[in-house]
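User: quick one, fold this
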Amino acid sequence: MTLPPLIALDRVSQSFDEGRVVALRDVSLLFAEGESVAVLGPSGSGKSTIIHVLSGIRTPEAGTVKWRGKPVTSLRQWTDLRRTEIGIVFQEFNLFPTLTVAENVEVAMFGSKLRSAERLDRVDETLEAVGLTGRRTHVPHELSGGERQRVAIARALINRPTLLLADEPTGNLDSVNAKAVLDLLFDVQRKCGASLVMVSHARDQAARCDRHIDMKDGQVVTEGCA
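Assistant:
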């Protein structure tokens, strides 16, 4: 018996500005468990919209998103998936400025059934995995850009997702920090066995993925192995 893909887009379309800007045009894509996929294309090609649709942040105007072969049709389903199955890393770090590193990571577990002690143990374990054990009590303005993105990655990983979405995760970093963050992303993706879908402008970053998808004007132009 063939298992369905982890997540799939089936003829998905999305527009903005009362239809004047078409972000996605009848897009169908499959993402398998455990694979890494780069989504490439110029600005305005629909890359980030794919991430938003895959995470349920945006509901498509047409088409269906399927999780393990079953349509996701309600906001409640998406909320549950983001809490238990989907982790998201954005270009902007989106950290709470008055919370410590540990608190910024722990906040992603609020609403879970874990006890406080269990949450703290998992925070410590995840901060160690991203190399931030010594920074757990610092607040974001005391961190470098690379460290802030590591906090964002830790927050995305804290619920042990099966799908990790990264939208230009190195866009605000210099080349040294960008490489370090990418190394970390691919390392944790392999260790956790999660699927990784990463939006990028850079071909060298895409080459590290199992597969790449090229977008233009809201449509898939090519798909292939990196």
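User: anything notable?
Assistant: Residues 72 and 163 are 15 Å apart (CA to CA).
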